[in-house]
Amino acid sequence: MSRRPPPRALLIAASAASVAAGTAMAAVASHPVRRHDPGLANLLFLLALCAGTLLLNSALSRAIEHYWSTRNR
C-alpha cells in the first residue's frame, strides 16, 4: 500500500505559522537591546528570526509527516 504525502496546504500553513512564531520570538529577543544598540538589535532579530523559523518549520513538518504516515496505515 503506497502512502500519500500530506496535503500541500497543510505544509504551507505550518510554514506560515512557523514564520509568524519566529518573528514573534525574534522581536522578543531583540527588544531589550534595541535602545542601546539598534544595529546589534537588527542583527539579533534576523538571527533569531532565521533560527526560530527553521527550527519550528522542521519540527512542524516532521510532526505532520509522522501524523500523516500513522494516520494512513
In short:
The chain has 73 residues and is an all-alpha fold.
Characterize the structure shown.
With 73 residues, the chain is an all-alpha fold. It is built from 2 helices and no strands. The chain has helices at residues 8-34, 38-71. α1 (8-34) runs antiparallel to α2 (38-71). It is rod-shaped. The model has no long low-confidence stretch (mean pLDDT 84).
Question: Keywords for this structure?
Answer:
73 residues; mainly alpha; 84% helix
Q: Outline the biggest β-sheet.
A: none
How many distinct beta strands?
A: 0
Structural class call reads mainly alpha
- The fraction of residues in strands falls at under 5%
User: What is the helix/strand order?
Assistant: HH
What is the helix tally?
2
What is the CA–CA distance across the termini?
A: 9 Å
- Based on Cα principal axes, name the global outline: rod-shaped
Radius of gyration: 17 Å
Indicate the percent of residues in helices: over 70%
Low-pLDDT residue intervals, each spanning 5 or more residues: none
Mean pLDDT: 84
